[in-house]
């Protein structure tokens, strides 16, 4: 890297750097309202704030100096760091299981360069070995970057590529699959893969991180280790999400791909099983602690069912009071073939929408009702208004989560538009997306099962 | 009531009654595949199932007989029950506070007629006294039915009528207000009333029930008693929701009107404070247990601010992967003035929507971002994609819940459409709808504070 660089800086810090006439890799003396600092200006990462200039001090420590507190800067040199992850080869051991890791975008893991404080994304087996050497104790790792998109930009194109790549690897005989994924829509991808990839012989584990690996509180390496361990060793051959446990970093939870949802925009324990309990807990030290036994078992063969059907003209309508029929009417006019409503209570919308629902029925648009309470079942037969909607062709989607019903309807309408067949496919659970009952400990937070959870709970109550 | 009645029966039980030639109030002998039953056919309520015929046996007990198990029916008489709630006058005591209760639809409480098993809705003070006599120990009660709509049909017309009625009663000097409301959109009404009714001198308490009063597990009377006690005695002068506590029927929780959401379609403990902790617990025996002290205190005067502004052309767009721009474009074309997006993660939507967001900006449509994780804050400055959206005029709505941001945007756009003023009003918290931080026990479930909660938690962990 040559010339002036301001890598990672944004306003107001960026403007202040320019005013002061300094840039990344400059060795500077900064006078500030809080004292004088000498060090090298470091590049910043995308996720950091826009107010600080970060210096690598002589001591080796990094310090963030508020840009608006700097009164004077004097450059004494330039010390550009050139860094590279050591290309150690990922050790192969024929006694360990083969695991394939697919990248879809975002950082799977990274390595902190302690000299410069910069973060180096790691992806190849050699780089991952450098960043998280414990992986080599678990498996023989192969990695492949499928594409690089932000999680919110994932869509059917990526789902189909991913499902096919997973199927091909499994047919080649790997013992498990890990998919690195941004957390925003990780649960959406988990649910569509649960429908596209059926009767799996090995685990397919989606994993992400809520805090990037350059932060001390990062969950990236831990989640990755737990996901790789699950892919290599776990006997649950389903599409799962492996993420940070709710109460401690001593374990991760394995969530069924169709019952999991992101529930906090920033916490590490963001993924939660909704209306059910997770499949298992996993930790490096204690292995797997199963929380239930109704799961698809690992097999020795390499067969699976792959069905990548997907109809794009499907929408979620999230009901709110005073909603007007124009929104649903516009969907019909624009050729939508399926609508998942997230209704209030047991699955209700207001009366002014009924003519729009009749229009859906007449146009052959499949309309499925879910609940925006997220927990609990749709039950439209309790009140007369609900029964009116059933007459208008609205189908109760039981306890499918709205986003799961959306993904399933896309998948089903990709195969048939005959209403009876759509209904048959929609209401017949394939991967736990509909369950007979909600366990009492399936509401709001799953707790219990292992000593550390009990301990945490009793501690938080003091 | 004369002639044939099938009150409350639906198919298949309804058809079976007709086939058998019997109706409500018939004294019958029913032969079934499980034995013979003699009794009076009782009317059923709207919320009961459609498969059973209910008989009042000679013993006084009611029994439900599956309609399809009846092989033969013989009518031996007709014993129509004429019932009426005893018109006992609600006792008035000048030493007790005056409370006004408004009905908006649905059943506030009811009285079970033990002779017939029928449910009699109670609403006048005299009837409520008959149904829940303990109310007379708390206050002098006045009731007024404002209208009768299902909760999902509530809208601005009802909000304005309710807000004005509440304001008028408070100005007359009552010590507290209770509003009976269906649970589906109770939290929506609580949030709009939090904006329409400001600087309250007394509590305004919304209450409902998840199980109708003819069921043994009903929460109706308990919730009503706790709500009336809160209106009469509590020192928190805010719009609140008073509903069944999460872990035991020994107490109810008081939720701030802008931070509460229905989270289970059927459980009694459905209302939860999100991203924060509730205001207080209330029980008849122990009174109020405050969980925080940052609330608006009860005053002796009768002044308040009433502002019933409401713009109807506002929508919630709930993002899902592969969303197409046509949905937002249709809103702009249909003259919508405000859109609340529930985005993924920290507040994201996919890139194909950016042109539609530009169209919103150019048309002067106010677009506010919330998170569909429900917990946590919007933070669009972390990734470049979020910063792009900020440039497109999308405003971060902090930690406002999507439905609260919707109600507030309706209220704000009813007052001004000037973008700077809208932003100023939207981002300036009026009633706790935006908070500086989320307490650690504000995520997923609020627990703790009283011995019975701790006890319950430890019990569930065994």
From TrEMBL, chains A, B:
Protein name per Swiss-Prot or TrEMBL: Glu-tRNA(Gln) amidotransferase subunit GatD
Positions annotated as active site in the UniProt record: 107, 107 (o-isoaspartyl threonine intermediate), 183
PROSITE patterns: ASN_GLN_ASE_1, ASN_GLN_ASE_2, ASN_GLN_ASE_3
Presence of the UniProt keyword Nucleotide-binding in the record: yes
Residues that bind substrate: 151, 183-184
Family: Belongs to the asparaginase 1 family.
Single Gene Ontology BP annotation: translation
Domain Asparaginase/glutaminase C-terminal as annotated: residue spans: 313-426
HAMAP family: GatD
Alphabetized UniProt keyword annotations: ATP-binding, Ligase, Nucleotide-binding, Protein biosynthesis
């Amino acid at each position: 890297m040559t010339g002036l660089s301001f890598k990672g800086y944004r306003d107001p810090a960026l403007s202040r750097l320019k005013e002061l006439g300094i840039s990344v890799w400059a060795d500077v003396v900064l006078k500030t309202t809080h004292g004088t600092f000498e060090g090298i200006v470091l590049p910043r990462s995308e996720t950091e704030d826009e107010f600080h200039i970060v210096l690598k001090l002589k001591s080796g420590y990094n310090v963030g100096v508020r840009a608006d507190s700097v009164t004077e800067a004097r450059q004494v040199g330039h010390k550009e760091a050139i860094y590279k992850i050591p290309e150690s080869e990922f050790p192969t051991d024929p006694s360990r299981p083969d695991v394939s890791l697919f990248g879809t975008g975002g950082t799977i893991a990274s390595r902190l360069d302690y000299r410069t404080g910069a973060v180096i994304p790691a992806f190849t087996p050699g780089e991952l070995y450098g960043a998280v050497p414990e992986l080599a104790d678990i498996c023989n790792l192969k990695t492949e970057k499928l594409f690089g998109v932000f999680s919110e930009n994932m869509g059917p194109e990526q789902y189909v590529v991913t499902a096919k790549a997973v199927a091909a690897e499994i047919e080649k005989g790997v013992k498990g699959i890990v998919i690195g994924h941004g957390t925003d829509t990780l649960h959406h991808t988990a649910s569509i893969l649960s429908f596209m990839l059926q009767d799996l012989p090995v685990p397919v584990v989606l994993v992400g991180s809520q805090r990037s690996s350059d932060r001390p509180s990062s969950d990236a390496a831990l989640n990755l280790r737990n996901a790789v361990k699950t892919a290599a060793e776990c006997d649950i051959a389903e599409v799962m999400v492996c993420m940070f446990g709710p109460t401690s970093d001593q374990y991760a939870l394995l969530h069924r791909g169709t019952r999991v949802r992101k529930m906090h925009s920033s916490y590490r324990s963001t993924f939660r099983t909704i209306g059910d309990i997770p499949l298992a807990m996993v930790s490096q030290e204690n292995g797997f602690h199963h929380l239930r036994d109704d799961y698809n078992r690992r097999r020795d063969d390499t067969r699976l069912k792959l069905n990548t059907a997907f109809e794009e003209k499907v929408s979620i309508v999230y009901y709110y009071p005073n909603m007007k029929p124009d929104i649903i009417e516009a969907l019909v006019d624009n050729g939508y073939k399926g609508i998942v409503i997230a209704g209030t209570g047991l699955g209700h919308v207001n009366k002014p929408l009924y003519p729009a629902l009749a229009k859906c029925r007449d146009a052959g648009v499949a309309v499925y009702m879910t609940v925006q309470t997220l927990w609990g079942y749709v039950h439209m037969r309790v009140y007369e208004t609900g029964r009116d909607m059933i007459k208008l062709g609205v189908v109760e989607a039981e306890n499918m989560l709205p986003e799961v019903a959306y993904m399933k309807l896309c998948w089903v309408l990709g195969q048939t538009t005959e209403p009876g067949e759509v209904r048959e496919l929609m209401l017949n659970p394939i991967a736990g997306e509909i369950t007979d009952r909600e366990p009492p400990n399936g509401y709001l937070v799953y707790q219990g099962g292992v000593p550390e959870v009990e301990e945490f709970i009793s501690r938080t109550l003091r």
